Recover the amino acids of this structure.
């Protein structure tokens, strides 16, 4: 979904050039400024988009076309594109070689089309290739954890995907790998389609939520503006009123002013009350949204996974009369409790050690012993080691 | 994800092995697994160790000077034990001097006892082993002190005295440094007494605790910790101080204990045995008798470990010889590899690989 909307981005020619590491010579200031470049002559599907949906192109002052050997010095507008076999060449070479239809790559002889050239995003072309391969694989291998019975099967699946990816990236057994991918696609067509739809739905829901939040924000802002306006008007009115009253009434001036002030105060406090109601509504909404996305996480106590920690033999009281920990408990500033020391944990440890192994009978006779089963503990070995 | 996998696997294993019943935590400790003996076994280990050491030393004496071993009165296991006990009694003194917490003291004593279940006094004199065990205990219980500060406060001790033995001690302990102590169990019992409804504060005066603690300290002179669990030792010591309080607490635990065997039955015999042990052996040994043992130890020490003796020199020479051989072999290998062309050597065959691996294992010693 996100990809599709972004496709329009580069078709409209929003390509930003990015300076390479080597561009530190006199021209660097100029070359580092982003340039929007027309891409009408090339249509491509590669490149990596940033969050705003634009492709940042890799660009360096040392660029040289490997085919015609022209470089940035000879042709300041030199632009290198990457073929589907991951070889670079300049736009004029591409025009020259591929305008008349598919032709072999001048470097590796693979048959290429003009449309299959993409801008370069990464300095290292292997990274470029890996990103492209991974994107392609991710489109088809989109199963999730809940599509498998157990974790083991899911892990195996992930491993297989990683194997395929590795093979494609490093050109190992490509025909075989492609066959495996095709087989997978055939087998899981329905599932893949479903997962794609699910992803789209998720993205859609996310977008909707964002939209709602944005609207809410806007609404709040306009509300605040309106309120401010109202408040100003009211103040104005109040002032006029005071003047009017002072004109017409024969009472003490100070009293009249105090009375109108009190009225104004009452009005404004009513308004703030309404405000807080509104705010709390917004907060409620937000917290509900947060709840819907966060899966409740049961706290995990590793100690009690496989082991019985005697928890039913003792009960920890909330406080003990204990001269040992008196200093810690009386420490008001909490210096002694720094680093998360809790006297309750010390107590619990003591209680646990008071009941642990209470029912263990001592060993009798020549029973099991470590000396027999562990040859390394023989004394002569130790002596030799010294 | 893999971690999740493995925990699942182990929990499934534990579940199936004990039919859903979890294993008590204490049985996971190395103290339970590797340092728990029956009294007979303890005796046996010490006698065997002593006999083996005597045989080795007698051989060395004979190799040095035939017939020289006949007049030597070797120590027996009991005498060795006496000497160790004397040095155990030095540890609380040192700890008092350095103001180390009780944890350090108890741990060091455990280390010393455990060390002499794997080594004999005739090889390693307990004086330095004791210093090393204590130094090690400060580190393993998170009460570190710098080596300089440590040795400069002990007369006639240099840093190397402590460091030379450190690895040996750690190795003899099997690198199992965690020890469960009776004094913590006693503290726990004392805290837990407060949750007994019918035992008000004036029925459990603080000096009962102090007396019990004194007995816990005395129990460190005995083999109790190698036979019984810390909680049992603590309870026995409390029982010496106040049988009534002990009984009350034990009864309250009997009521909730999930074990199949009634707790009171287990405790009755066990507590009696520990009490006997603490009263009987819970004091430092008589210095005069130990002095006599120490005098004889000077004569029957393993000569390979006495600097300057013929056997010591022979051992050093042999070690050097072996090292020399190894060096020569290495140099030869390198020369040959260079001559063959590839400085990194040619591909190893499986047999050669196995040989190299065996060599590497030797290097580890």
């Amino acid at each position: 979904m996100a990809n599709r909307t972004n496709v329009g981005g580069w078709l409209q020619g929003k390509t930003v050039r990015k300076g390479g590491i080597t561009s530190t010579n006199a021209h660097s200031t100029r070359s580092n400024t982003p340039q929007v470049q027309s891409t009408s002559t090339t249509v491509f599907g590669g490149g990596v988009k940033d969050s705003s949906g634009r492709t940042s192109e890799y660009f360096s002052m040392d660029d040289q076309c490997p085919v015609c050997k022209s470089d940035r010095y000879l042709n300041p507008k030199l632009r290198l594109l990457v073929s589907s076999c991951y070889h670079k060449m300049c736009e004029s070479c591409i025009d020259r070689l591929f305008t008349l239809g598919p032709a072999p790559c001048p470097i590796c002889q693979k048959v290429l089309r003009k449309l299959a050239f993409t801008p370069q995003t990464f300095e290292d072309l292997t990274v470029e290739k890996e990103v492209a391969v991974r994107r392609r694989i991710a489109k088809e291998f989109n199963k999730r954890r809940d599509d498998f019975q157990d974790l083991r099967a899911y892990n195996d699946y992930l491993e297989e995907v990683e194997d395929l990816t590795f093979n494609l990236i490093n050109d190992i057994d490509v025909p075989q790998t492609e066959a495996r991918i095709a087989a997978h696609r055939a087998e899981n067509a329905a599932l893949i389609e479903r997962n794609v739809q699910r992803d789209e739905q998720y993205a859609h829901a996310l977008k909707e939520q964002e939209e709602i939040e944005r609207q809410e924000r806007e609404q709040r802002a306009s509300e605040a503006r309106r309120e401010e306006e109202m408040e100003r008007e009211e103040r104005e009115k109040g002032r006029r009123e005071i003047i009017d009253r002072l004109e017409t009434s024969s009472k003490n001036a100070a009293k009249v002013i105090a009375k109108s002030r009190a009225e104004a105060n009452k009005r404004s406090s009513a308004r703030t009350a309404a405000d807080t109601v509104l705010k709390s509504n917004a907060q409620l909404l937000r917290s509900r949204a947060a709840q819907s996305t966060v899966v409740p996480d049961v706290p995990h106590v590793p100690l009690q996974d496989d082991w019985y920690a005697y928890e039913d033999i003792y009960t920890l009281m909330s406080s003990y009369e204990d001269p040992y920990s008196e200093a810690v408990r009386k420490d008001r500033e909490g210096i002694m409790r720094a680093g998360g020391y809790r006297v309750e944990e010390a107590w619990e440890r003591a209680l646990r050690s008071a009941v642990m192994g209470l029912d263990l009978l001592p060993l009798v006779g020549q029973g099991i012993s470590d000396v027999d089963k562990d040859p390394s503990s023989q004394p002569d070995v130790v002596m030799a080691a010294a | 994800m893999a971690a999740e996998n493995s925990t699942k696997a182990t929990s499934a294993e534990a579940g199936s092995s004990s039919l859903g019943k979890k294993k008590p935590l204490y049985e996971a400790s190395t103290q339970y697994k590797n340092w728990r003996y029956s009294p007979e076994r303890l005796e046996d280990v010490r006698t065997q160790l002593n006999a083996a050491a005597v045989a080795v030393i007698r051989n060395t004496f004979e190799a040095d000077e035939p017939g020289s071993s006949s007049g030597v009165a070797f120590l027996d296991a009991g005498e060795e034990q006496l000497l160790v006990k004397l040095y155990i009694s030095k540890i609380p003194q040192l700890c008092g001097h350095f103001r180390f917490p009780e944890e350090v003291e108890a741990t060091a004593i455990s280390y010393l006892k455990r060390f002499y279940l794997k080594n004999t006094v005739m090889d390693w004199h307990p004086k330095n082993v004791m210093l090393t065990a204590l130094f090690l205990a400060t580190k393993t219980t998170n009460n570190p002190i710098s080596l300089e500060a440590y040795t400069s406060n002990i007369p006639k001790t240099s840093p190397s005295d402590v460091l030379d033995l450190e690895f040996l001690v750690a190795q003899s302990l099997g690198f199992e440094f965690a020890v469960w102590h009776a004094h913590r169990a006693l503290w726990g019992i004392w805290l837990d007494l407060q949750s007994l409804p019918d035992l008000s504060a004036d029925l459990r005066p603080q000096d009962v605790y102090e007396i019990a603690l004194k007995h816990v300290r005395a129990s460190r002179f005995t083999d109790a910790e190698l036979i019984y669990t810390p909680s049992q030792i603590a309870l026995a010591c409390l029982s010496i101080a106040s049988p009534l309080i002990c009984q009350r607490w034990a009864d309250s635990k009997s009521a909730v204990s999930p074990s199949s065997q009634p707790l009171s039955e287990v405790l009755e015999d066990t507590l009696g045995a520990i009490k006997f042990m603490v009263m009987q052996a819970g004091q430092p040994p008589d210095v005069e008798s130990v002095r006599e043992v120490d005098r004889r130890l000077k004569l029957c020490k393993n000569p390979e470990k006495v600097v300057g003796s013929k056997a010591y020199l022979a051992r050093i020479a042999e070690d050097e010889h072996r090292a020399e051989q190894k060096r020569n072999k290495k140099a030869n290998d390198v020369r040959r590899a260079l001559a063959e062309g590839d400085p990194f050597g040619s591909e190893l065959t499986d047999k050669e690989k196995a040989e190299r691996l065996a060599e590497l294992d030797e290097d580890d010693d």
